[in-house]
Design brief:
alpha/beta; Protocatechuate 3,4-Dioxygenase, subunit A; 12 strands; disordered N terminus
Length: 209
């Protein structure tokens, strides 16, 4: 019987692994290690002074009140690090104005529709996924439609940014959107496409965790 040395055994294992691995795997790993972080944006003046009692992932219900105005939309995606690994335990927050362009904030005169939650947060699991039920954002004075997004992990704030609507004519007139380069705009500007139960927008978030 021919003995297999430890060095030859390692060579055989390595060869078998190479043959068994899908051809796309090396390029996928290389791409994952070169992810760019999602561009940061200003927080803006309307982050809640105090978080609402109802601050779950469904912004179309505030307590027992149901919000039936505007265009309902699902906003969803994953939170990953620069290597493409899910950031388990990260908290994603969003806040935005109601269909009439008003925020739940004293600086906006308290004019927001009380049925619209206006703010929500979710903690992502091991797969890094998050999902919100909200509105397709609308414009208000001086700004193109957008949703504010913040990501936290424990006590660290990893990202504050804004999500924009692909193809909205207001983008080209918005000073904050215009200041980004083409690559940054593409990272935070996504389509809102029709679905069975409202519009859908997928927004992958990459953070340096």
């Amino acid at each position: 019987m021919k003995l297999i040395t430890s060095s030859r055994r390692r060579l055989l294992i390595a060869s078998a692994t190479t043959l068994a691995a899908p051809t796309w795997l090396p390029s996928a790993i290389a791409q994952a290690k070169n992810l760019r972080p999602t561009p940061s944006q200003t927080e803006g003046p309307f982050y809640p002074v105090s978080l609402p009692a109802d601050s779950d992932a469904d912004l179309l219900k505030n307590g027992n009140a149901v919000y039936g105005k505007g265009q309902p939309a699902w906003v969803e995606g994953t939170v990953t690090d620069l290597a493409g690994a899910p950031v388990s335990g990260a908290v994603v927050e969003i806040w935005q104005c109601d269909h009439a362009g008003h925020y739940h904030h004293p600086g906006d005169g308290g004019r927001a529709d009380p049925a619209f939650q206006g703010f929500g947060k979710v903690t992502v699991g091991r797969d890094g996924r998050y999902r919100f039920r909200t509105l397709k954002p609308v414009p208000y004075s001086g700004r193109t439609p957008h949703i504010h997004v913040k990501v936290r992990l424990d006590r660290m704030e990893l990202l504050t940014t804004q999500l924009y609507v692909q193809g909205d004519p207001g983008n080209e007139r918005d000073g904050i959107w215009r200041r980004m380069n083409e690559e940054a705009r593409a990272a935070v500007t996504v389509p809102f496409t029709p679905g069975n139960d409202g519009l859908r927008a997928t927004f992958p978030i990459v953070v340096q965790a």
